[in-house]
Design goal:
This protein is α/β, with parallel strands linked by helices. It is built from 12 helices and 12 strands. Helix 4 runs parallel beside helix 6 and helix 6 packs parallel to helix 7. The structure holds adenosine-5'-diphosphate and magnesium ion.
């Protein structure tokens, strides 16, 4: 059963260029994907590829330009914000920087309690009990509720952000780079917590990250995004062992390996992502791709099924070998 399905989603931001001309930033440009119940789908790609816009648009924190969002089979793309409020209870978001998303003048108990009140989940003594319970679930002592955000470390603040998201008993959580700002040792603790919560509460996640090192530990499948489009989507294992898009291979080259002498194919990404106001003709990745030909200039490759649950958008995907990344996958999954 699919908890979320996104069809042909676009988000264009209008920007003024010159006095009375408007251009459009094609932040997401026609993407399709789904998330199964109790599954974690990773969304990876460099900064600016459209990941956060995707996360915000599916929760309707940003209004999509076009396309459809189905949540539990219900089309929520056009429903009024008031009705959307009911679905917000089931769909939550955890941000990269919990400090920016926590009110600095509110004690933690008030922040978590607010979510319980807005959604009429608990008040009075019940509310207090639920706050204690939530803090316990995320591994914080109950007296945390009487303290302010600045009194906590980055990792603890992320636990608070997770407690607030969990307060309303959601089924689906967008985690937007929840560990990107944390030290590596703390990253692992938060990833473990998210994994445990997923099991315990049967959650589904859309887990956004800019590097493939992090997502491997938590994601069942991965979608690779570049310049507003999904260029490859497959199981985590297939992405690591049989990547079929040159961009995916380049991202994999950047993942550190335990054994630096382990043989693998390096593809160094040079140059910068083009401006999404005026993307290249044909394939969006061609300006940085070592394999690009005239075909890639003239024609845009569609996302096509090449194997069970493996889709890729590249004219030359059949020429891209895999298996060289076995060491990375093996080294990092143990
Ligand atoms: P990511 O999360 O992958 O780093 P974003 O979704 O934040 O990427 O941004 C995708 C693109 O959309 C970027 O080029 C960014 O500059 C642009 N963008 C994001 N928000 C806005 C906005 N409000 N107005 C104009 N452009 C935006
Ligand atoms: Mg982002």
């Amino acid at each position: 059963m699919r908890i979320l399905e996104v069809k042909g989603l676009k988000k264009y931001f209008p920007v003024k260029i010159g006095l009375n001309k408007t251009a459009y930033v094609k932040a997401i440009d026609n993407i399709d994907f789904f998330v199964n119940e109790k599954e974690t789908l990773g969304l990876v790609g460099e900064s600016g590829s459209g990941k956060s816009t995707t996360g915000m648009a599916i929760l309707r924190l940003l209004e999509p330009t076009s396309g459809e969002i189905l949540f539990n089979g219900k089309n929520i793309t056009k429903i009024k914000q008031r009705e959307m409020q009911k679905h917000r209870k089931d769909m939550q978001i955890v941000f990269q920087d919990p400090f920016a998303s926590l009110n600095p003048r509110w004690k933690i108990g008030k922040t978590i309690g607010e979510a319980l009140e807005i959604h009429k989940i608990a008040k009075g003594k019940d509310k207090q009990r639920r706050i204690d319970e939530l803090l316990d679930i995320v591994g914080l002592p109950s007296e945390s509720k009487n303290r302010f955000p600045h009194e906590f470390s980055g990792g603890q603040r992320q636990r608070i952000g997770i407690a607030r998201a969990l307060a309303v008993n959601p089924k689906f959580i967008v985690c937007d780079e929840p560990v990107s700002a944390l030290d590596v040792s703390v990253q692992a603790q938060i990833i473990n917590l998210l994994n445990d919560l997923k099991e315990e509460f049967g959650l589904s996640y859309l887990f956004i990250a800019h590097d493939l090192g992090v997502v491997r530990q938590i994601c069942d499948r991965l979608a690779v995004m570049y310049l507003g489009k999904i260029v490859e989507i497959a199981s985590t294992e297939d992405i690591f062992l049989k990547p079929k898009h040159p961009y995916t291979k380049a991202l994999l080259s950047a993942v550190p390996v335990a054994d630096p002498l382990a043989k693998r194919e390096e593809i160094i990404l040079s140059g910068e992502m083009p401006n999404p106001i005026s993307p290249p003709t044909g394939c969006g990745f061609r300006t940085r791709c070592h394999m690009a030909t005239d075909l890639c200039v003239d024609s845009r490759p569609n996302l096509e099924q090449i194997d069970n649950d493996h889709q890729v958008a590249c004219h030359y995907s059949d020429k891209i070998g895999g298996r060289k990344n076995v060491e990375i996958f093996a080294a990092q999954t143990t």
